[in-house]
Design a protein that fits this description.
The structure holds 2 protein chains of 2 kinds. By secondary structure, chain A is an all-alpha fold. In chain A, 78% of the residues lie in helices and 0% in strands. Chain A has a single domain (66-269), classed as MetI-like fold. Helix content of chain B is 23%, strand content 32%. In chain B, the strands form 4 sheets. In chain B, strands 6-7-8-3-9-10 form a 6-stranded mixed sheet, with helices on both faces. A 6-stranded antiparallel sheet of chain B has the order 13-12-11-14-19-20. Classes of the chains: A mainly alpha, B alpha+beta. The structure holds adenosine-5'-diphosphate and magnesium ion.
Chain lengths: 273, 379
């Protein structure tokens, strides 16, 4: 390695390390605060707790985190399932069709990716309200799905362009119709694309706040981000319990992300073709 | 009635015509090999027969049924791909039984078919493995096994051996021939390798640029090539091609130029053969094994430039500067000579290139064969 490229490498590492610290520090503070008492949290905010107490977690659970957790899981699972199912099928047809019009359909879908949420919030609210879905889990699961489909379609599209055609042709000779080729051959071999699409959308939908705040006004249907936010006023005296609630909301995703990051990085690296 | 019949098949991609009216037929149980250079449309023709490509016009029938518009799986064909195309998420047994499973055949029947195919191909020990645990040769066997379990009317092979190394390739050639005898099935086999064609085929179809140049048995093509293209494609090392001109004509005797200062080569044309016209540019062809130190005709003096000692035989390349070639694949004046023994020829040595009159082939300017050579028989 030349001196110059080594200097560049050291510089890059320094920047990335700083950035990582910047991102991880709040998470770290949140986790240690969850183990502290109220007094300790304010007197020694950055120190490790003197003793690890799970009392705050118990209190957090007691004030409704468990319900929010269930809602979050249901909403995330449903929306991610719809996204993966619809995007993979759409992308497959777009990637395999030779009809010129399909290029335009693809462009239209990708364009949907560029519509900011804020600009459609009011009509979206009216739509959901008109459908009588306000204060139900579908009220956010369906918009989440709609929002996740363009990006995930792009992801699958690039993946399918590289997918070996001979496998599909062999399957057609073996008697599979188009749908059977997709479900028996293509989809089972799309693990990397499914994994990264699912993780990406799960992270986004698990953390989504604005839509959930707008659509879910009743406490029993709220997801974790809005649910915990709703507790801040009521339980402002109990910061450790809030921190424990937030920790419960954050950790599942971090764990999943760590387990699957290999897939995630690999398939994002293939985007843009 | 032929078992497989292809009639006037045309395939166009936009303005590009890949197949321009291809017709041939194969009898039941025949092993037909289609050869031709890369890009001449072999795969396209095979895929058209399989139903993976829609043809622009023409028709295909198998076992008396017109299947031009049928679904790939309803045509009674099975295809073996160059890259094996095994399903990576299925075991060897599942790969081989997949077609029957899709057709919802009973489990026992699938198992029996898979076991039988595995025995024929000697891959019984690998049935539980996944494709990625197999070597290239084993994968190719599985791919063939997948075709066998379907018991198709016609097997289609698209360069199935080209990803294997040379030793394995010659072994698989023998096995495929054995398989063909055992199954008695109709097979259409595509390759760009003339050795595969010569060794395995009952009949060879030579393709060039979307057209069939000639159909015939391996030795027919070797001894009586219909065109200069076939003469150059079949046989290794290639036939030598010499640019020449018709110098004199008397009766059926034709004199061809052999370069400055050399007497013309007189050849006697047989009654059925088309005579050229005086002054015509033609090509003389001569096989490497027909060139030697003695013979009726002294073609040229030459200098040895390369000697390839293969043990049993020797390939001697020499440069005869007085002669031009009409072959775009070889250099002017370069001759290949196949000596059926070890040779003491050295680099730089001056030699005389000689051959018998009966060894010359004559091609017209458009490539059509005007005059055939007689095959050489060693006692
Ligand atoms: N899908 C396609 N679109 C356009 N041209 C094609 C397509 N498939 C093949 N071709 C062209 O058709 C010609 C013949 O191809 P192919 O049948 O694969 O040749 P071979 O198998 O003899 O090497 C080539 O020139 C190739 O570029
Ligand atoms: Mg090919």
């Amino acid at each position: 390695m030349t001196l110059r490229s080594r200097t560049v490498a050291i510089g890059l590492h320094a920047v990335v390390s700083l950035w990582t610290l910047f991102v991880l520090l709040p998470v770290f503070v949140m986790v240690i605060s969850a183990f502290k008492s109220q007094a300790e949290l304010f007197t020694r905010p950055l120190a490790l707790p003197k003793q690890f107490s799970f009392a705050a977690f118990e209190r957090a659970w007691g004030i409704g985190i468990s319900g929010f957790l269930v809602n979050s899981i249901l909403v995330t699972a449903l929306s991610v399932f719809i996204i993966i199912f619809a995007s993979s099928l759409a992308a497959y047809i777009l990637a395999r069709s030779e009809r010129p019009v399909m290029r335009w359909v693809y462009v239209a879908i990708v364009a949907g990716f560029a519509v900011p949420l804020q600009s459609v919030m009011v009509p979206l609210y009216q739509l959901v309200s008109g459908a009588g879905l306000l204060n139900s889990r579908l009220a956010i699961a369906l918009p989440y799905a709609a929002y996740g489909i363009p990006f995930t379609t792009m992801l699958f599209y690039t993946f399918f362009l590289e997918f070996p055609r001979e496998l599909e042709e062999a399957a057609r000779l073996d008697g599979c119709g188009r749908l059977e080729v997709f479900f028996r051959i293509v989809l089972p071999l799309s693990g990397p694309a499914i994994a990264s699409g699912a993780i990406f959308q799960a992270v986004f939908n698990w953390n989504e706040f604005i839509l959930a705040l707008l659509m879910l006004t009743k406490s029993d249907v709220r997801t974790l981000p809005v649910g915990i936010y709703g507790l801040t006023g009521q339980y402002s005296a109990d910061w450790p319990a809030l921190m424990a609630g937030l920790a419960i909301a954050t950790l599942p995703l971090i764990v999943i992300f760590l387990l699957a990051q290999r897939h995630f990085v690999r398939s994002l690296a293939g985007l843009g073709k | 009635m032929p078992h497989l019949e292809v009639r006037d098949v045309v395939k166009r991609y936009g303005t590009l015509t890949v197949l321009s009216g291809v017709s041939f037929a194969a009898e039941k149980g025949e092993f037909v090999v289609m050869v031709g250079p890369s890009g001449c449309g072999k795969s396209t023709l095979l895929r058209s027969i399989a139903g993976l490509e829609e043809i622009s016009s023409g028709s295909v029938s198998i076992a008396g049924h017109d299947i031009t518009a049928a679904e790939p799986s309803d045509r009674g064909v099975a295809m073996v791909f160059q890259n094996y195309a095994l399903y990576p998420h299925m075991t060897v047994a599942q790969n081989m039984g997949f077609a029957l499973k899709v057709a919802r055949r009973p489990k026992a029947e699938i198992e029996a078919a898979v076991t039988r195919a595995a025995e024929i191909l000697r891959i019984t020990d690998h049935l539980g493995k996944y494709p990625k645990a197999l070597s290239g040769g084993q994968k190719q066997r599985v791919a063939i096994g997948r075709a066998i379990t379907r018991a198709p009317e016609v097997f289609l092979f698209d360069e199935p051996l080209s990803n294997l190394d040379a030793a394995l390739r010659s072994q698989m050639r023998i096995e495929l021939s054995r398989l063909h005898r055992e199954l008695g099935a109709t097979m259409l086999y595509v390759t760009h390798d003339q050795t595969e064609a010569m060794t395995m085929a009952d009949r060879i179809i030579v393709m060039n640029g979307g057209n069939i140049e000639q159909i015939g048995s391996p030795l027919d093509l070797y001894n009586k090539p219909a065109t200069r293209f076939v003469a150059g494609f079949i046989g290794s090392p290639r036939m030598n091609f010499i640019a020449s001109r018709v110098m004199r004509l008397s009766g059926r005797s034709v004199g061809f130029s052999l370069g400055e200062g050399r007497p013309p080569l007189d050849l006697e044309f047989a009654p059925g053969e088309t005579l050229p016209i005086l002054g015509d540019a033609v090509t003389l062809g001569i096989r490497p094994e027909a060139l030697g130190d003695d013979g009726e005709v002294h073609i040229a003096d030459a200098e040895v430039t390369v000697v390839e000692a293969l043990g049993r035989e020797t390939l001697v390349y020499s440069d005869a500067r007085t002669l031009r070639t009409t072959d775009s694949e070889s250099l002017d004046g370069y001759f290949a000579q196949l000596v059926p023994s070890q040779s003491d020829k050295r680099l730089g040595q001056q030699i005389e290139l000689k051959a018998n009159r009966s060894a010359f082939v004559v091609f017209a300017a458009d490539g059509a064969t005007l005059h055939d050579a007689s095959p050489i028989h060693h006692k």
